[in-house]
Amino acid sequence: MSTSAVPHPSTRPGPQRRRGTRGPRLALAGVAAAALLLAGTAPAVAGQHRDDGRPPHLTAATPGPLLECASLAGFGFDDTVVTGAALVPAGALSHGGEPIGAHCLVTGRMNERVSDVDGNSYAIGFEMRLPTEWSGRYLYQANGGIDGTVVTATGAVGGGESGLQQGMAVLSSDAGHAANQNPLFGLDPQARLDYGYQAVGTLTPMAKALVEAAYGRGPDRSYMTGGSNGGRHTMVGAARYADDYDGFLAIAPGFNLPQAAVAQIWGAQQYATVATTAADLATAFTPAEREVVAGAILRRCDRLDGLTDGMVQASDACQRAFSVDRHVPTCVGGDRDGTCLTTAQKAVVRAVFAGARTSGGEEVYSSFPYDPGLTQPGWAGWEFGASVTLDPGALGFVFSTPPADPGVLADLRGYALGLDVDAAAEAIYRAGGRYTESAMAFMTPPDPTDLGTLRDRGGKLMVIHGAADAVFSADDTADWYDALDRAERGHAERFARYFEVPGMGHVSGGPATDRYAALAALVDWVERGVAPSSLVASVNPANPVLPADWSAGRSRPLCVYPAVARYRHGDPELASSFVCAGGHGRGGH
């Protein structure tokens, strides 16, 4: 994508699929031979082997003890200032109710400068936690939102795991700006680029050097993980930094985040047309009305996986089976009483789930799947809250070229509801003047279907997304995987796998089994060649939105897309009673 001009609409990349029309995986004769030829073009790497045309297998990390801590206060690296280094005793931090072991905490900043655009001071702030009992692994913890905060480097994201608890040396950063600079850091061109991808490239060699200083050797294996914007960082990393990392775990990745921001604001404008209280978008689609829609989805789709259990595993089939117009009661006379939707409400809900469009009908972002998880409060928070508070600031100052006038901060809601979506959809592709890269260039993977470097050196990518995510669409992620699989001639699963979580909202939560050990599975895949055929996921008993009739011990398999968890026999609360099979137009794994 050119960064010097707005592309013609016909040349802009964008969503190509509506949910329920996913095409079959290509079955090509001679694919194995082609894969062998492709794999053979990469240089051999010590400790790797190739099997049947599959990507190379990386050797396992070797544990080691922490050798230095306090002396790391004097650690030297280009454009880096270390501000502290101290031992943190075991139990001072915990994760999931379990103590984290003793580790060394190093804090600092890189690339301090004063902007010649806004006169503010910028730096890439970071902290790194180095366990005394080290696994031999390094983990880059990519953080969410629009960054700006050095989140505690426990390596925790989605799923319930902690990389630090697993003995990984973990790095966390603010991606190049402070929280009090949000969202106006977008006025500074370098801060935009750091936030988009360059902070990762800057921090990575420093972090590995710090690991070497602490343990006497560099990391044997390096990983990257994050959820939401952190998932976007991870997807970008898999495309840009595959030489530096061996495994990537992306949760709810907003890898088309600028498009999603425009779509969120467009959605807010649609909801405003049916809101009963002008100041409260949530009155457009109340909790009671969302329960009505969720109930209709379940009546049509719950049984499609072979078991009526309050979950929709067969999501693709559901999108074909369910219709808001036909299956949700219509309010008689237009009166809303919480048991129906008006004709106007149905039109809005249908449009929002179908995906944002310009006034000329061009797609802005992806469709969203209908899922009963839309009842959770977090879903409403993204649709009716963030869409008029967070998204307009990010779009106006970070994703648009030129940026908006700072005066719009006085009324972000008014800015969002009055936004010219057609112009906004163009501005995220525009570059010019001091802004040398468009938002769609610096925020997204350069080519999300070209992961040849990752593939050929034995790296692996796992992506997990909730079907009820209201801000970043699981449809968009499935669409990406379909395109990657086509580019890989039907063999993307050799190095990349996607798992969809029914009912799960953004990153976690919702009526879902949202606890799973994906990071451990990624390590097994990268270092032992054990590809995950599924992940066992369980409920979080502390989740306040779990239905009352669900067992606190409920578990389900998360299947490798496009396979679906289908009930076979046995205890309906246990994952072992299900099998991953089928999928729209495809065989199981």
Summary, kept brief:
The protein has helices at residues 31-39, 189-215, 229-240, 257-272, 287-301, 315-321, 324-327, 343-354, 377-399, 412-417, 421-427, 439-442, 452-456, 474-487, 518-528, and strands at residues 64-65, 80-88, 94-95, 98-99, 103-114, 121-131, 133-134, 137-142, 169-173, 221-227, 247-251, 460-466, 496-501, 534-538, 555-559, 564-567, 578-581. By secondary structure, the chain is an alpha/beta fold.
Question: Top keywords for this entry?
Answer:
589 residues, alpha/beta, Rossmann fold, two-stranded antiparallel ribbon, 15 helices, disordered N terminus
Walkthrough of the structure:
The protein is α/β, with parallel strands linked by helices. The protein has 2 domains: 64-255 and 445-530, Rossmann fold, CATH 3.40.50.1820; 259-442, no CATH class. The chain contains 15 helices and 17 strands. A 9-stranded mixed beta sheet has the order 2-5-6-9-8-10-11-12-13, sandwiched between helices. Helix 14 (474-487) links the parallel strand 12 and strand 13. The radius of gyration is 24 Å and the shape is globular.
Topology:
Elements (H helix, E strand, L loop, with lengths): L30 H9 L24 E2 L14 E9 L5 E2 L2 E2 L3 E12 L6 E11 L1 E2 L2 E6 L26 E5 L15 H27 L5 E7 L1 H12 L6 E5 L5 H16 L14 H15 L13 H7 L2 H4 L15 H12 L22 H23 L12 H6 L3 H7 L11 H4 L9 H5 L3 E7 L7 H14 L8 E6 L16 H11 L5 E5 L16 E5 L4 E4 L10 E4 L8
Parallel strand pairs: 8-9, 8-10, 10-11, 11-12, 12-13
Antiparallel strand pairs: 1-7, 2-5, 3-4, 5-6, 6-9, 14-15, 16-17
Helix pairs in contact: 4-9
